Amino acid sequence: MNDRLKSNHSISRRQIISAAIAAPALSVPTWCSASGFSVTEMILLSAKLTQKSPNLFLPAIAQKMLEAYAQRGFTHRLQTLLANPESDLELGNEIVASWYSGIAETLQGPQVITYNNALMWSAAPFLHPPGNCGGLTNYWTLSPSS
Predict the structure, then answer these.
(1) 112 with 102: CB under 8 angstroms?
(2) Helix 75-83 vs helix 39-50: crossing angle, to nearest 10
(3) For residue 122, is it within any domain?
């Protein structure tokens, strides 16, 4: 009897792992999944607007950015902007500012989307987020290499 109960009600390790992998997809807000604008498109749009490589934009951060803009009902504007970056300069500038500052405007107000991966740290080679090491001890005392 114990074997029968065990076989009818046991969960395999594969089922647990599959459920864990699927869980984040279930937590995506409905405005994002129904928006028709993907994270890949958000990365491509961001790369166009900032004139940076798409490889620089992490999908997890792009997802959060997309959620902020989709929540505000801007998916149609994002699609138009992707087709023609000159079509909505106000939104384009806001997206660029969000990537550089790491802060996006949401319905609840400004929200920090990223700190360490904000583009402002890549604006100059000597910049890095406070609290993150910039090099070896006393690296700032060394003369720059030519």
Answers:
(1) yes
(2) 50
(3) no
Name the phi and psi angles at 22, rounded to 5: -75, -20
| CA neighbor of 119 nearest in space, from 65, 70, 82 | 65
56 token code pair: 């620089």
Counted residue by residue, the chain has a size of 146
The H or E element spanning position 109 is strand 109-112
Task: Report pTM.
Answer: 0.67
SS3 at position 37: coil
Residue 136 lies in a domain: no
CA atoms of 98 and 104, how far apart (whole Å):
5
Domain that holds residue 66: 29-114
Q: What is the mean pLDDT of each run of 10 residues along the chain (146 residues)?
A: 50 65 50 69 95 94 95 94 94 96 94 91 76 72 74
